[in-house]
Amino acid sequence: MQIPEDGLWPLIAGAAGAALSLQFIEGMTWKQKGVMTITGTLSAALLTTPLMEWVGMPASWSNGMSFLVGLFSWAAVGGVMHTLQKADWWGLIQDVVRRIFNRGS
């Protein structure tokens, strides 16, 4: 992992956001909380700069954006995981196969 150009403050802000996000999730073990904090911190470290460039934010907002990415990264990951678990994969496969074979008809 590469240290951001403006030092460790964005990384620290991302870690603080990830740690704060744990207050909104109940029933977790200390190990799960540790993994979530590390993952939120890494998400903030790796995704803040690309997100800021994508939306055209000024570089001076990097600490705040790192905090928000750390804070909301698990909400996004949790939503994706929930969607994948609830998906009707067999229905999707059947639909894709039907579309492939009905294309020539």
TrEMBL record:
**Membrane spanning stretches:** 7-25, 34-52, 64-84
Any idea which UniProt keywords this protein has?
Membrane, Transmembrane, Transmembrane helix
| Protein known as | Holin
List the top taxonomic levels of the source.
Bacteria, Pseudomonadati, Pseudomonadota, Betaproteobacteria, Burkholderiales
